[in-house]
Amino acid sequence: MTTRAPSPAPAPSSVPGPWHIAWVKGGHARVASIAVDAIVLSSTIPSPPGSRLEGRLLVEAGATDATGETAATSATIRVKIHGSKRQPDGAFILEGRVLDATREVRARLALAGAAAG
């Protein structure tokens, strides 16, 4: 049985930003789309089906919340992965669902998804 070496993840500069998520284990992702129970991310790292990725949700500098105050710079996000597909540009399309997210985090993800789409 021949094993093949895993392909290295693309460098962050090879997949253009803006980044919406910084993964704890390294790499970044942006929200491609989001629905009630489903999220699609374009990520610099793959993740197998059934895995759970944890990251920090990033906010653009100067963003404000509903009260007009400057929003916190990041919040924790966890995603259960349903599928991962490598793209020709080296990025990975991750399909999954967001776990244990507050309303604020879901609203911020929806804004990121709306800006992406």
What does this structure look like?
The protein is mainly beta. The protein has a single domain, classed as Thrombin, subunit H (Beta Barrel). About 10% of the residues lie in helices and about 35% in strands. The chain is built from one helix and six strands. The chain has one helix at about 105-115; strands spanning about 20-25, 30-35, 40-45, 50-60, 75-85, 90-100. A six-stranded antiparallel β-barrel has the order 1-2-3-6-5-4. The longest helix is centred in the C-terminal third of the chain and has 14 residues, at about 105-115.
CATH topology: Thrombin, subunit H
Relative strand content: 35-45%
Helix content: 10-25%
CATH class: Mainly Beta
Poorly predicted ranges: 6-15
Query: What is the structural class?
Result: mainly beta
Topology order in helix (H) and strand (E) letters = EEEEEEH
Task: Give the biggest beta sheet.
Answer: 6 strands, antiparallel, barrel
- The overall number of domains is 1
> Residue-averaged pLDDT, rounded?
80
- Tell me the total number of β-strands: 6
- Identify the overall geometry: globular
Which architecture per CATH? Beta Barrel
Going across the biggest sheet, name each strand in turn. 1-2-3-6-5-4
